[in-house]
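anyone seen this seq b4? input:
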Amino acid sequence: MLEDPGLRRKIIIEKSGSQSTVVWTPWERKAAEIGDLGSHYGWRQMVCVESSNVRSNVVTVAPGSSHTLSVQYSTESL
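predicted toks r here
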C-alpha cells in the first residue's frame, strides 16, 4: 500500500505470482525521454512500483510450463 496525502488516497497493490517489488524513478536523463512527465523536474513527482520476481526470487519457466504474474491496483480515500 502507498499513501498519497497530496490526493488524499491510498493505493492498494494486490499481486500473485510475484515475490519481489521494484521501486524506481527515471531520474532526470531518462525522464527526458518520457513525454508525459511535464516539466524538466517532473520525475521528482513520480514513482514506479513494479511487481516482479528478481534475484533470489527469479522464476525459471521450463519448456511446456507456464507462470502467471498478476497485479491489481485500486485506490481508497485516506
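Helices lie at 27-31. The longest helix spans residues 27-31. kinda curious what u guys think
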